[in-house]
Amino acid sequence: MEQFSIGVDLGGTNLRSAVYTPDGGLQDKRSIRTRLEDGPNAVAEDICGMIAEARSSHPGQSCVGVCVGAPGPLELPIGRFHIPPNLPGWDGFTLSEVLQRNLDISFYIDNDANIAALAECHLGSGKQLGLDSLNMLTLGTGVGHGIIQDGRILHGANGLAGEAGHVAVYPDGEPCNCGNRGCLEMYATAKTFHREATRRAVAGAPGIRAMLERSPEASPSDLYALATTGDVDARAIFADSGRAIGICIASLINTMNPALVVVAGGISDAWPLLSPTIFGELESRSYIYRLTKPGSRFKRNTIVRRAELGPDAGLIGAALYPFVYGERQ
């Protein structure tokens, strides 16, 4: 009997699910709007409904389990949310209690960045390079961070390991919603690219000013398109962001000596403009990187690259999760 799993990706805008089989990969993808206005119990009911639909569409097959990936902060393994910025009204909500009442199969809950990193390790860059450990930074609305060690997620004492987005790359920098200042999240997300573009436009950057006049809500993709035309001000924004990312990765390398660090998320589409200053900071701030980079004296190198899996990484990881964890219990 062929086995399958079900992955659910809980986002602030959309709720997505998919079925996964080892031979067929991701299939039967579904998406509905996340009903945040109706409260967490309503969304949890929708999750259970999507799981039931996925199971019923695969009669005669054995479901090995379900995994829900969700934005944090998320207390694990209990599955309790603690003031999640992308899920207003969910503070203190324990998703596992609803799933326990409604599901008769094994289920798992984990942080969405952890799950995306798991997929990248088992089916993306890790698989390509023959590695079972990595650090992954996901740059988008916020900065996610997942750590995979020996093929499994490194969770920490409370399930909160992997918050490099709140490493202070500039101690006296921009104030962050977390209460710190100068966090990486203030220099490598969609919101911060728009902030810096607005500042430069006010200061007299003609290309950026014209872009914002045409499209006041211009995205990082719009800014990237401008930068690829050679606009020096737009290119400088990406260089500054790459510098902040590089400072953070240098700290990770100095602390953990990882074999692989990957950068994912929508912002990573600008890798050609981000990477020069990323590697410049690695060279100047991490002697571990200088010792172990490709071409160095060490047989095992420290590799830093853009992630291979795209926007479905979180959904892939959620669907893969029951196979990875179920077979090792």
What does this structure look like?
Strands 3-2-1-4-7 form a 5-stranded mixed beta sheet, sandwiched between helices. Strands 10-9-8-11-12 form a 5-stranded mixed beta sheet, with helices on both faces. It has 2 domains: 132 residues, ATPase, nucleotide binding domain (Nucleotidyltransferase, domain 5), CATH 3.30.420; 177 residues, Nucleotidyltransferase, domain 5 (2-Layer Sandwich). The relative contact order is 0.14. It is globular and about 60 Å long. The chain is 40% helix and 20% strand. By secondary structure, the protein is of the alpha/beta class. Strand 2 and strand 3 form a beta hairpin.
Report the CATH topology name of the largest domain.
Answer: Nucleotidyltransferase, domain 5
**Lateral strand order in the biggest sheet:** 3-2-1-4-7
| Low-confidence region ranges | none
**Please, how many helices?**
11
Please identify the top-level CATH class of the largest domain: Alpha Beta
Structural class: alpha/beta
Summary, kept brief:
By secondary structure, the chain is α/β, with parallel strands linked by helices. It contains eleven helices and twelve strands.
Please describe the structure with a list of short key phrases separated by commas or semicolons.
329 residues; alpha/beta; Nucleotidyltransferase, domain 5; 2 domains; 5-stranded mixed beta sheet; 11 helices; 12 strands; 40% helix; globular
What order do the helices and strands come in, and which of them pair?
Elements lengths: L2 E8 L3 E8 L3 E9 L6 H17 L5 E9 L3 E2 L4 E2 L13 H8 L4 E5 H12 L1 H5 L4 E6 L3 E7 L2 E2 L36 H13 L3 H9 L5 H8 L4 H25 L3 E5 L6 H15 L1 H6 L10 E4 L6 H14 L3
